[in-house]
Amino acid sequence: MLKLAVLSDLHLGFAYGTERGEDAFVNAERAFSVALREEPNLILIPGDIFHDKIPRPEVLARAIELFTKVNKSMKTKPILLKKKQLIPPIICIWGTHERRHADSINPVQILEKAGLVYCLHKESALIEAGYDKIGIHGLSGTPEAYVIDELKNWQAEPFAGAPNVFMIHQNFKELLPIDEALGYKDLPKGFDLFMLGHIHWSLEAKHPLYNTPIIVPGSTVSTQLTKIESQKPKGIYIVELGRQKGNINFVPIKTRPLLYEKLNVAGQRPNEISVSIMQKINECLRRQYDQKPILRIKLEGILAEGFSPADLNLNSIMKDYRDKIILSIDRSKVTSTSLEKQSKLLAELKAKKLSIDQLGLELLKSNLKIELDPGKLEAIFNFLAEGELDKVEELI
Questions:
Q1: What is the pLDDT, as a whole number, of residue 338?
Q2: How far apart are CA 362 and CA 377, in angstroms?
Q3: Residue 292 burial (CB count, 10 A)
């Protein structure tokens, strides 16, 4: 029986130099500690060890220190059977945050060159770990537009006489609404387990055609601050694989609390919204936390007539509560009646599939307060485009 520890999306270097700059490293250390307590044969990481393609030297140095410590604590000395060589007991792929162009070195490859991980990209490796063999197959982060072709061109084949796991770091339609993303059905057949990186919350699923288990470890640090991240614990998977059975268990780790609140601000003035935000903050602060929590507040709605999103100044709230809570306020869904009218107009014009010139004419017509015949309107549009403002005045 093989025991695997699976953790993903460590995002080392996330928010470096800010109040949350230590979170990624602290959580990664906790995740590895939980893994090591289970005494796994191998540790698998399906991508995004680092947050940046080119991490700061300080981040890279701490990552090397962390991975050196983990390697020294591992008892297994795995062998890559094809080359009859010892490899590190940490097997990984790189993710979308680390992917660079083909002629460059990414930070995961630096860890590999330092002898701290064994990295797979479009590669299948038959590995002897302890008294057992395992096939590990990995496709590192790939642009969504090309990933299906990459899978078809690679045509990964499981090894006979051993359990086979497949690691990939991509979007999936079942988890994120992206048209060109993979679906579970695109994962190849013949494997015993799929491990998906990139998604930041943990879950278990099944391949729709082969009933093969799919596990998503999720990230070890909250970077996206989504509602589902606030509802699901961070952690790692411990997987036991054999020829006849397997156990999959999620083990949570302790992380900084993430709270998520949604506020409907429809018809409200900026001062009313500020009051509602402070009420939400104070409600959250009535609870007890071991560590300063993160509060993500998502605002949605059309403001009261005469106000725009620019009128919503929340700097004083951020300043007043900064010692008690880490605030993140999302205003992307806040709009005004004037902006809604413009947005509706643009949507209607796009639906008509008009040319750029036609769009310009329609917008000009909607904004002019006088009635003009089509020929004169077109002339005004052309003169405006050419900067002939005096001729525009003559026509109007």
A1: 74
A2: 10
A3: 15
One-letter amino acid of 25:
F
Which residues are bridge partners to 6 per DSSP?
Answer: 44, 237
Query: What residue spans in the chain does CATH classification 3.60.21.10 cover?
Result: 2-252
Question: 2-252 has which fold?
Answer: Purple Acid Phosphatase; chain A, domain 2 (3.60.21)
Beta bridge partners of 328: 296
pLDDT, residue 394, reads 72
Q: What is the pLDDT of residue 343?
A: 63
Dig out the tokens for 62 from the structure: 């701490």
Tokens standing for residue 393: 């005045």
End-to-end CA distance of the chain: 85
Give the closest residue to 384 by CA, choosing from 339, 342, 368, 343: 368
Task: Give residue 24's pLDDT.
Answer: 98
Q: How far apart are CA 332 and CA 92, in angstroms?
A: 36
Q: What is the pLDDT of residue 176?
A: 86
- Residue owning tokens 């609870």: 287
> What number of helices (H) and strands (E) belong to the chain?
11, 17
Separation CA 200–CA 191 (nearest Å): 23
Distance between CA atoms of 304 and 358, rounded to whole angstroms? Answer: 32
The residue ranges of the chain whose pLDDT is under 70 are 243-245, 339-364, 369, 373-375, 378, 385-387, 392, 395-396
User: What is the DSSP pairing of strand 132-139 with strand 123-129?
Assistant: antiparallel
**Helix residue ranges, H only, the chain:** 23-37, 57-73, 107-113, 144-154, 227-231, 270-285, 315-321, 337-351, 356-367, 374-385, 389-395
Alpha-carbon gap, residue 122 to 368, rounded angstroms: 59
Radius of gyration of the chain (CA): 27
- Residue matched to tokens 């998502």: 298
163 close to 193: Cβ distance less than 8 angstroms: yes
Which of 14, 97, 119, 111 lies closest to 61 in space, CA to CA?
111
pLDDT on residue 177? 80
Predicted local confidence at residue 356, as pLDDT: 56
List the one residue out of 172, 168, 164 whose CA is nearest residue 189.
164
Alpha-carbon separation of residue 360 from 87, 106, 339, 355, 369 (angstroms)? 62, 45, 17, 9, 16
Alpha helices by DSSP H, 233-306: 270-285
- 3-class DSSP state for residue 336? coil
- The single-letter DSSP state of residue 390 is H
Copy the structure tokens of residue 10: 């460590």
